[in-house]
Every structure is written in C-alpha cells, then in structure tokens.
Amino acid sequence: MAAIVSKGELVYDYVETYLYTSSFRNTHSHAVQPILTEDIPPDYVEEPQILVPDVKRSPERPRTKMKANLGSKKLPKAQK
After folding, report:
1. Which domain of life is it from (predicted)?
2. Residues whose CB is less than 8 angstroms from the CB of residue 17 and which lie 6 or more positions away in sequence, other chains included
3. pLDDT tens for residues 27-69?
4. Do residues 5 and 11 lie in contact, with contact meaning Cβ atoms separated by under 8 Å?
5. Contact at 8 Å (CB) between 19 and 13?
6. First and final C-alpha spacing in the chain
7. Alpha helices in 2-76 (DSSP H)
8. Which of 34, 36, 32 is nearest to 44 (CA)?
9. What global pTM score does this model have?
C-alpha cells in the first residue's frame, strides 16, 4: 500500500474489481471435489508425529566464590 500511495495512485484502483459480487461468485463457482482413498499416496500419515527438537544446553558460567558481605563481618571488640 505504501508503494501505491507513494506513486500518487489510489489503492481502490487495484482492489475495486475484487470487491464486486461477480468476482466473489466467479471465485466460488467451482465445485470442490473430494479426494478418493485410491488417490492418496501409500506413505501418507493422517496424523503425523510431532518430534521434540534436539537441543543442547549451553555451557553455564563457572561458579565463583561468593564475596563476603561487608555488613556481616564481625568487627574486633574495642580494647579498654
């Protein structure tokens, strides 16, 4: 749509013919034919199995020693 508008043309000029009822009737005038069981390939599976993808875990960061919290350090007692 942006390309049509940038050319200075109307979008309706491109889609108007498809909005007529005659176009709708022509589109849906063809009959849908069922597929016979003889026409189905022998390797056709009605409900295919969905397999889980193989995923490797990414390497984790190595653990580091936890730094002591400054608020939790015991301070030496004051001497008299």
Report:
1. Eukaryota
2. 23
3. 888 888 887 777 777 776 677 788 888 888 778 777 777 666 6
4. yes
5. no
6. 87
7. 2-6, 12-15, 21-27
8. 36
9. 0.31
Tokens of residue 77, six digits? 């007692």
DSSP at 44: -
Tell me how far apart the alpha carbons of residues 19 and 11 are, in angstroms, rounded to a whole number.
13
- Residue 61 token pair: 């960061």
State both tokens at 65.
């020693």
Q: Are residues 14 and 4 in contact, defined by beta-carbon separation less than 8 angstroms? A: yes
CB atoms within 10 A of CB 4: 14
Chain segment 11-21, per-residue pLDDT in tens? 888 888 888 88
Which two three-digit tokens encode residue 15? Answer: 């889609």
Length of the chain in terms of residues written: 80
